[in-house]
Amino acid sequence: MQDEDLAGVMRALGHPVRLSIMRMLAAQRQNPCCCTDVTQSLPLAQSTVSQHIKVLLDAGLIERQARGTRNCYTLRIERLAAVNQACGGLFSGLCKPTATPHLANELA
Amino acid sequence: MQDEDLAGVMRALGHPVRLSIMRMLAAQRQNPCCCTDVTQSLPLAQSTVSQHIKVLLDAGLIERQARGTRNCYTLRIERLAAVNQACGGLFSGLCKPTATPHLANELA
DNA sequence: GCACTATATCGGTGTTCGACGATTAAAGAG
DNA sequence: CTCTTTAATCGTCGAACACCGATATAGTGC
């Protein structure tokens, strides 16, 4: 995963409202939430929530499924797993005691 | 770790240049980098690099140590470990098959 | 076709970001 | 004390963000 992509995902997750939305979608995995559901649990206008959802969509973290008259959103688990791995790699790389470039390579 | 704090850290890390700076500081842990060192390895003005460093400082991810006429920066490892843990918790919470609120609590 | 619901998008506003050059501040060297 | 180095800060500018209300779009049911 490229730094550019990882940074983009981090920025997408770098807002408390969007973290809340992600957690809510995770909690309601069985019967996915639509935009109205999310809006009703947040003190924000519908248009604002829709924009936050778009940010998460653009970052590839969630996906939309048209379901009748409403759009349901679900987490993209494989993508999240990849991000998780990239984050783990980042932090372990940062925290490793002697992370000189060539050593970093052999451990990557 | 609160969502607000986690989101702040994510946003701080949500820029390719800042990821580069973090990796560079990790690689040069033995003899810490100063602002000039970082500037010389990036195609950016000194003031711009200084501002990126300030963002990382404000997020608590790095710390400054005055060393003679220059300021050296080092990673705050304990903090990074906490962030790593929070990220791991976030992603595992998101990816868990049935992450209802009370179950999420008992696993946190 | 018409009303209704759900939601994406548009336009506007105020704030923050990312970048720069220029200036200031502070420590060392002479 | 002055000169140099280092780096933080200031002022500016355009772009992006966060929020809102209002408008458009699209599917459902009649």
From TrEMBL, chains A, B:
The keyword Transcription applies. InterPro entries: ArsR-like_HTH, HTH_ArsR_DNA-bd_dom, HTH_MetalResp_TranReg, WH-like_DNA-bd_sf, WH_DNA-bd_sf. Signal peptide: none annotated. Pfam families: HTH_20. This is Helix-turn-helix domain-containing protein. GO terms for molecular function: DNA binding; DNA-binding transcription factor activity. Keywords: DNA-binding, Transcription, Transcription regulation. Residues 1-108 form the HTH arsR-type domain. The keyword Nucleotide-binding does not apply.
